[in-house]
Specification:
mainly alpha, globular
Length: 196
């Protein structure tokens, strides 16, 4: 029975607070960060925000965190200087959405072919497969964001994806517990039903 570490609980709460624009909570989390944090996992968490909440939320998060003490020292190997990587993205996408990856890709493509390419190349190939935060932790952050936003269908896909990437059901439930007082209670209740 695996449970989330205290650091992972902070990352889940930080991610959901940014996605929801709860800048008071973002500032509180930064000011109360224990020694050794923020670290690379914090920086990877914030970098992932734009995929779930857009660039404006990410820009504001960086400003709020900078004013509250920053995100620590960037390691030289954190800046990858690489282009979008659809091949690597496809591998992670297939792992998360298996056995429905083809159907999900058709949905993305039906909206616009460039949207599918952007999701595979940028979201999955460049960002979500970056080193510095494991795939299961990134998927748990997705579960937090999608719960907070009330996006049940995508939540179901990412909850299953988190399990395929190595998270446990107990960790998924810990994510939901970590959203208390932040996400709408009805969204958390619905997420519990989705997760089962």
């Amino acid at each position: 029975m695996s449970r989330l570490s205290e650091r992972d609980r902070r990352l889940v709460r930080l991610f959901a607070a940014i996605v929801l624009g709860r800048w008071d909570e973002v500032e509180r989390l930064r000011r109360e960060a224990p020694p050794g944090e923020p670290d690379r996992a914090w920086r990877e968490t914030v970098l992932q925000v734009h995929v779930f909440a857009g660039f404006p939320r990410a820009v504001e998060a960086y400003a709020v965190l900078a004013a509250a003490g920053g995100l620590g020292t960037l390691d030289e190997d954190e800046v990858l200087h690489e282009p979008d990587n659809p091949e690597r993205g496809l591998g992670l996408f297939e792992r998360i959405y298996h056995p429905h990856a083809g159907a999900v890709r058709r949905i993305l493509r039906s909206g616009h072919p460039d949207f599918e390419a952007w999701i595979l190349g940028h979201a999955y190939g460049r960002l979500l497969s970056r080193p510095g935060l494991s795939a299961d932790r990134r998927e748990l952050l997705a579960v937090a964001a999608l719960t907070a936003l009330g996006q049940d269908r995508q939540l179901a896909s990412h909850a299953r994806g988190s399990l395929r990437c190595g998270a446990t059901r107990e960790e998924l439930l810990d994510v939901l517990d970590g959203l208390r007082g932040l996400a709408a209670p009805e969204f958390v209740d619905r997420a519990r039903s989705v997760i089962g």
